[in-house]
Design a protein that fits this description.
Elements (H helix, E strand, L loop, with lengths): L12 H6 L49 H4 L6 E2 L4 H5 L8 E8 L9 E9 L9 E6 L7 H8 L6 H5 E6 L15 H9 L6 H23 L8 H14 L5 E6 L1 H12 L4 E7 L8 H26 L10 H14 L5 E2 L5 E2 L1 H11 L8 H14 L3 H11 L10 H12 L7 H14 L39 E8 L5 H10 L3 E9 L9 H13 L8 E2 L1
Protein name: Peptidase S33 family protein
InterPro entries: AB_hydrolase_1 (IPR000073), AB_hydrolase_fold (IPR029058), Pept_S33_TAP-like_C (IPR013595), Serine_prot/Carboxylest_S33 (IPR051601)
GO molecular function, one term: hydrolase activity
Length: 549
């Protein structure tokens, strides 16, 4: 996803410069967008600018007497409330149950304050063959695990749903779990309508103002919550959930950012790990600037492959000309031109450069069999017919904006969690120059106009909460075998990240999907689906080096 404000394209460059983790929501193309739900009230109040996260050494888990009330609670599962979005999407939620999990706001002082996390459960279809629960997280940070189950139930049909209660939850600070709140809908619209300046000096000044304003707005509305939304606390919530539903070990599927959550869980609670699948993996040891550059390069390569495929295999509907080597540049030039000549969409908003690039990037999370067809059509309508409505619709979906103009807490949660997890220090001049040189050499279309000055500030420089978390290799000594899954053409979490994560663990196996798009789960690859099901249901780890074509 993204952070703070627009860049070129807005979902990438600013996040790289800000030093926040830029990860994706891993949803299949027919999942509903992330949208507002009835939210539990966010904790509010002032937070110290120098507050620090709960230290890793703080006693946690069932052994801590202070946490006994939380580990001993019972979830009241009831029919889920009516959801107009599910009805509109004709999603069958029959049999699903909803509930709430009570967790401490601050695990160092569990009696001081608490919040409720939103839950959904799709009970096992064959109870007599039930293995246990399968907890899931779709990515982000900021995406809704409740919506992953509600709108993506078909991805679990078959072996997984037969034998597991599939449980989704909105992590703290997201969705309906005490969401971080900073802006109202009108403010979100105004920010998204504004393209970043082309001039480097003006762009830097605009970023400083926007990030400062954003931090102040979040502090004013959600200040009490900000120090406690980091992933380490969410991992502790996950252990409470595991125990409360009656599972001795955690079975878990995490996609994209969800792999970081799973890795931190394994680090915090290695003896409680059951069968963990970490798909579309993040390397927790990688510097966030380097990670952002890797992503930018990954999306550039994906964009080029899409453009070549458009010309070679879909000439009758491709608006990018006949030269496959120039197709990507033709599209990029058009998108860049929207900075000065935006398109007006049906609701009166303007589709500028940054929103258009956001729409394009959102469709590059899919592959040639799914979302690329929508990208061809969207570019065709914009480039040939001067109609930007489809690109705007995909940008809206990515930004968490529904058809009524309401925004989910996605943006706010992303920044708050990212800044709680790791704030990049100011890079050395040599590091900044190396990053820019690589961007201009390997991602010239998506990085047009970048300068070293775009990367001089430390990440999360204006954020009110200063984290002590740092990138580090996670070993998780003593854990059960962990299955890491990587896709060779993944633009958001490049394959090298999966290799690094698997290598860092004390006990892990890497499973490879050869193909385009972000994440392997739900992509229709029979080899991947079979391997995941065998691992989760039987504990059978695929042979080392297994590659699914």
């Amino acid at each position: 996803m993204k952070t703070f404000r627009a860049a070129r394209p807005r979902v990438l460059l600013t996040a790289v410069a800000a030093g926040t983790l830029l990860l994706a929501t891993a949803c299949t193309d027919d999942h509903a967008s992330s949208q507002d739900k009835a939210a539990a009230p966010a904790a509010t109040g002032a937070a110290s600018p120098t507050a620090t996260p709960t230290p890793t050494a703080t006693p946690t888990g069932e052994a801590d007497p202070a946490l006994k009330p939380f580990y001993g609670q019972q979830i009241v599962w009831a029919d889920c409330p009516a959801d107009p979005k599910a009805e509109k999407a004709k999603v069958d939620t029959t049999g699903m149950k909803c509930g709430k999990l009570h967790v401490p706001l601050d695990y160092a002082h569990p009696a001081a304050d608490a919040i409720d996390l939103a839950l959904i459960k799709h009970p096992a279809a064959k109870p007599d063959q039930r293995v246990g629960s399968l907890m899931v997280n779709p990515g982000g940070p900021g995406a809704s695990g409740v919506e992953m189950v509600e709108f993506g139930a078909k991805d679990f049909e078959g072996t997984l749903h037969d034998r597991f209660d599939v449980i989704g939850f909105d992590p703290r600070g997201t969705g309906a779990s005490a969401p971080v709140v900073c802006y109202d809908d009108q403010q979100h619209d105004a920010l998204n309508q504004e393209d970043e300046p082309v001039d480097p000096a003006e762009r830097k000044a605009a970023r400083v103002k926007q990030s400062t304003d954003h931090a102040a707005a979040c502090q004013a509305k959600s200040g009490k919550l900000l120090p406690f939304v980091g992933t380490r606390n969410t991992a502790r919530d996950l252990d409470v959930l595991r125990a409360v539903v009656g599972d001795k070990k955690l079975n878990y599927l995490g996609i994209s950012y969800g792999t970081y959550l799973g890795a931190l869980y394994a680090e915090e609670f290695p003896k409680n790990t059951g069968r963990l699948i970490l798909d579309g993996a993040v390397d927790p040891a990688e510097d966030t600037l380097d990670h952002g550059v890797d992503q930018q390069v990954g999306f550039e390569k994906s964009f080029e492959r899409f453009a070549a495929d458009c010309v070679e295999n879909h000439a009758d509907e491709c608006p990018l000309g006949k030269d496959k080597d120039q197709a990507a540049k033709k599209a990029a030039d058009f998108l860049d031109g929207l900075h000065d000549h935006p398109l007006t969409v049906k609701d009166g908003r303007k589709l500028g450069r940054d929103q258009a690039w956001t729409g394009v990037i959102s469709m590059l999370y899919g592959d040639e069999k799914t979302s690329w067809k929508y990208l061809r059509a969207s570019l065709g309508w914009a480039m040939v017919r001067d109609k930007g409505d489809f690109l705007m619709a995909f940008a809206d979906d990515y930004n968490g904006r529904d058809e009524q103009g309401h925004y989910s807490p996605l943006d706010e949660a992303h920044t708050a969690i990212s800044c709680a997890d790791a704030a990049r220090p100011a890079p050395t001049p040599e590091h900044a120059k190396a990053a820019v040189d690589r961007l201009l050499a390997q991602a010239p279309l998506l990085s047009k106009g970048v300068t070293v000055d775009d990367y001089t500030e430390p990440g999360c420089a204006h954020w009110p909460f200063k984290t002590q978390e740092k990138p580090h290799t996670i070993r998780a000594e003593g854990s059960a075998p962990i299955l890491v899954v990587g896709s060779t053409g993944d633009p958001a979490t490049p394959y090298a990240s999966a290799e690094a994560l698997a290598k860092g663990f004390a006990n892990a196996t890497l499973l490879t999907r050869v193909g385009e798009g972000h994440g392997a789960f739900g992509k229709g690859n029979a080899c991947i689906d079979k391997a995941m099901a065998a691992y989760l249901t039987e504990g059978t780890v695929p042979a080392a080096g297994t590659r699914c074509e």
